[in-house]
Amino acid sequence: MLGLYLGTSPVTAVYRNGVGAFPDWLASLFSGGAPGILLDPSTAGTLYTTTAMTTPSLPGDPVGIVLDQSQWGGKSLAGLYGPELVVNGGFDVDISGWTGNATSVLSHVSNALRIQSVANGASNGYQAIAGITTGKTYAISFDLVKNTQSSGTPNYSVFGSAPIALTSSGTYRTTRIATNVQLVFALGDAALAGEHLQIDNVSVREVTVASALEPVLGPELVANGGFDADADWDKSGHWIISGGVATMPSTSSFLPLYQTMAFVPGGVYRIEFDVLEITGTIQAVLNDEPITANKSNTLLINSTGRHSGLFTAQSGAEVLAISRSTGASCTIDNVSVREIPGYHATQATAAKRPTYGIHPFGGARNLLTYSEDFGNAVWSVGTVSGAIVVQGAVTITSTNGYGYTRKVVALNDQHSASFNVVSDVDAPGVGIRISDNAGGVTIGRYDFIAGVVQRVQGSRTSVSATFFELGVDMRGGASTQTGFTITFDQAQLEAGATATPYQKVTTQYDVTEAGVPSVHYLSFDGVDDALATPSIDFTATDEMTVFAGVRKLSDAAVANLVELGRNEANTFLINAPLSTGAKDYGALSRGSLVSSAESGAFPAPASNVVSLLAKIGSDEITLRIDGVGFSSAGDQGDGNYSNRPIHIGAQQGSARFLHGHLYGLTVRGALTDDAVVQAVEAVMATKTGVTL
Amino acid sequence: MRLTIACPAALVAYANDLAMVLAFGPDDALTYGAPDWQDLAGNLYAGASFEVRPEWMLDAQEALARPAWDNAEAPAVDMDSAARAQGRLRVVAFDLDGAAVDPAARPDLITALLGSDGPAALAAMGLALVPVDPI
Question: In this complex, do B132 and A527 lie within 8 Å of one another by their Cβ atoms?
Answer without folding.
Answer: no
